[in-house]
Structures are given as C-alpha cells and as structure tokens.
Amino acid sequence: MAQVILLFLLLIAFLSGFFFLWKLPVINPSKDKEEEASISVIVPARDEETSLPKLLASLHEQSLVIEEIIVVDDESEDRTVKIAEEYGATVLSTKESGSTRTGKSAACWLGAQHAKGDYLIFMDSDTQCAQKHAFRNIVAQFKRNGDTGLLSIQPYHVIRSLYETLSIVPNIIVLAGLNRYTFLDKSIPKRGAFGPFLFVKAEEYFDLGGHEATLYTHMDGIAMADLYQKENCPVTVYGGKESIHFRMYPEGIYQLIQGWTKSFTYGAKVTHPVVMLSIMLWVMSTYLVLIGFVDGVMRVDLTYLSVIFITYVLHSLQFRWLMKKVGRFPWWTMAFSLIYISAFLLLYLWAVIQVYFLKKVKWRGREYKT
Fold it and tell me: What does UniProt give as the signal peptide span (predicted)?
C-alpha cells in the first residue's frame, strides 16, 4: 500500500512540473525590417568592470540605432566609469547628483531624468543582446502590445563555470513564481516583472512615477510591475532566448549566493498559492524518487525498482525540458536534480534567515534592511 501511495504522489509531483512553467513566451522576430524608435538605454552600474564591456559592445552592434546609452555609476570602486567612457556612453554619478539615495532604483531614476528618448530601456550590467536585431524585435513586440505598458524580459542564462549550474533551479523557480505561465493562464492573477530588462514608453513612465516610486525596495522589477498594474497598464513578461542573455554572478560562488538569497523571499510574496503548491510538489518529487529507490533496495523488489528507475528517467527529462526554457546549461545536469534542488533549498533557507531573522541582506558591499 505504501508503494502505491508513493507512486501516486510521484505522478502528481511529475504533472506539477508541467503546470507551473508550461508555456514561456519569447520575443518573436519582427517582419518589419524598417522598425525605428527613439531609444535611451539606461544601465545602473556598481563595480561592473567585468560585465559592462560585453553589454556595451552588444548595444553598439544593434541594427536599430540607439539614441543614447547612459551608464549611471553607483559609487563604483573599480574601472566601471572608465570602461563606460571608452565605449562612448554618457556617464552619470549618483554620488555627484546631490541625491541622498543610492542603489539600483535611484540610479535608474537618475538616468531616466536625463534621458532624451521616447522609449526607455533599463538593463542590468550583466545582460547583453543575444543578436543584432534584438532591439528591433523588442520594439516591434511592444508596439504589437499596444505601444503601452511595461515589457520585461528575463534574460536567458548562459554559463561558463561549473558552479554557475547552481542557478538552474533558482532560474526555474523565479520564472514560475510570477504566475504567468501555467495552464490556468486567465484564472490566476499575474504579478511582478524582471528588473534585469525593462522597456517602457518615457511619457507613460514619468506619468506613473517611474523608479522614484520604487526607491523603497531593491526588487525594482516587482515594484515596477505593481506600479503599472495599479493603473491598469499592461505588464508583459518574456523569456530572453534569442533576445537578451546574461551570465549571472560571474565573480564566483559567493556572489551567486548573495545574489540569489536577496531575491528569493521577495519573489515568493507574489506567487499564487496554487503555483506555490505545484512548485513544492515538483521539488518534493526528487526526494520521493530517492525514497522509492531506498525502499526498493531494502525490499529487494526488482519490479518496483524498475518502476522507480523509469520515474527517475522521466523526472530527469522533465528537468532538462524546464532548464532549457531558462538557460543554456550542460545536458548532463539533468541527471543530478537531487543536488541542484537541494542546493536551491539551502539557498532559500539562508534567504529566510536573512530576511526574517537577521532583517538584512547584503549586495555589492551594501546592507539592505528588510
């Protein structure tokens, strides 16, 4: 009887893995090769000498002419400013602006106030355009959406080091947590957006208060989405495959831990209970497989072990299907979901400790009260 119950739970958990991230829309290629727009790109940057060159180089390669690139230096202590100037960007400084505010939202707001374009694009320093027509396609998509609202893209994760594979499950969970990609598309309230890439119409942005209204949080994507949705302005969120890529936390595993733990619990606040339940069931499935395997070995039940092995293969294939939606990860990682899900749970536990017990998180040498 216990084996039947376990197999039933495995089936439910397996189906849950399809529920929360069934269909992830991406930016489609534009059929209009003459698409034009007056665009200002605003890049908040703090100690980004490693990532910034790749972003700026990709911006200069765009087929759509960019009116201006503004890099807002948020008290960097490395070569961020010099690199921005070498690429011809306009450089602003939060320290020299006279404002008492620092942080990403303050930097975005400062850049927006000096921007000249009809459209504003806010990009994190670790992002980059995946190909030369990326902006042309994004502008076309925004206009197809009615030329209004907030368009956000979660960049497609491309890795270079083994430790970066620890971001597989967090990337999946972060996308699922916005409630936008389930079977119940119209039944579950959609929440949030992704801060690494935001596209807005300048006039509408300033009418709503822009990043000045999000200075209370370092999760500007979620706050900006709330701002737009409160005014009944559409918020659309896309996967970044073939449009916007990034390499998250290239400076090492410590940066990865800091980066993810500052995000987890805030994102969980916008996740619908049904979606959260499906995520929890899917996370549980990898441990159910382990329990089934141990039980089968102890019972010396080859038939049962065969069923568990088939379940493990199906779970691994599903894990691969999910990870391909969010990033370019090695194929062999599909066989080690237990390791990656366990790492995610440890990161999440550390995030809970920081947010609810220590009441602070750290990022880029700063402490943020929670």
Answer: none
